[in-house]
Amino acid sequence: MVIMSAGTWIIMVTKFLEQAKVFSASKEAAREFWTKPSVQEGASSLKAASPFRYIAETGIVAAEHHEGSMRDAIDLHSWTAMSIQRSVDTINTRLQGGLAFLGTVGSTSPFVGLFGTVWGIYHALTAIGIAGQASIDKVAGPVGESLIMTAIGLATAVPAVLGYNLLVRRNKGAMDRVRNFAADVQSVLLGGFRHGVAPTATTMSTPTTGTTSGRVA
Asked: Nearest CA to 40 among 66, 63, 74, 68?
């Protein structure tokens, strides 16, 4: 139970900080990436550890290497989509790490506490059987221990369940931002402007054509 409780709090704090970095990187991408004249400069403006820079660089590399016989085998849209989706899946897998442990602790720790309760009651009944009478001094100790085990099980399970639900909800918000950014990057790589934004005089150049035809922000 001590290991479960310690692991729960370590994972919750670690994942919360990791998610906070993703949200901070999202704000940085909105502030820096889309104000640059090209996707290459936009990617370079982001921090090296930023997941949004990782997505942008993955898309750029995919677009630049769509050449030769590959053009006949697969179109640019499908090629960049597969490459960017793999980077998004990698980020999602990283964010999901540790949540299974929280779910396991939240599901099993109450039963571990219940097992302790049963064990304590068993000892109480054994003491009564040996003494031949149900005196308070024979029952109080084992029953008290069993109640303590129940309380420990609940104290371990409740933070794990609450932390799991909180982190899952924050993960969903973080991944929504990641997927939206990935879709916008692919739109720029293919058409020179962001998804859902009509082309205007304000532009961002793509790595494949070097021309500009879409609004940046």
From this structure: 63
CA distance 100 to 164: 9
Higher per-residue pLDDT: 201 or 148: 148
Residue 127 to residue 131: CA distance in whole angstroms: 6
Cα dihedral 171, 175, 178, 184, rounded to 10, equals -150
**In what helix (H) or strand (E) does residue 73 lie, and over which residues does it extend?**
helix 70-73
For 153-206, how does the pLDDT look when each residue is reduced to its tens digit (9 = 90+)? 888 899 999 999 999 999 999 999 999 999 998 888 887 665 555 555 445 666
Q: What is the pLDDT averaged over residues 142-154?
A: 79
Q: Are 102 and 143 spatial neighbours (Cβ–Cβ below 8 Å)? A: no
Rounded Cα distance, 156 and 79, in Å: 47
Residue identified by tokens 């205007």 is 200
CA 208, distance to chain mean position in Å, is: 32
- CA nearest neighbour of 24 among 167, 174, 171: 174
Which residues lie across from 205 on neighbouring strands?
Answer: 38, 212
pLDDT, position 80:
87
Q: Is the predicted pLDDT of residue 212 greater than 50, yes or no?
A: no
- Decide if 45 contacts 212 (C-beta within 8 A): no
DSSP reduced 3-state for 205: strand
Q: What is the pLDDT of residue 179?
A: 94
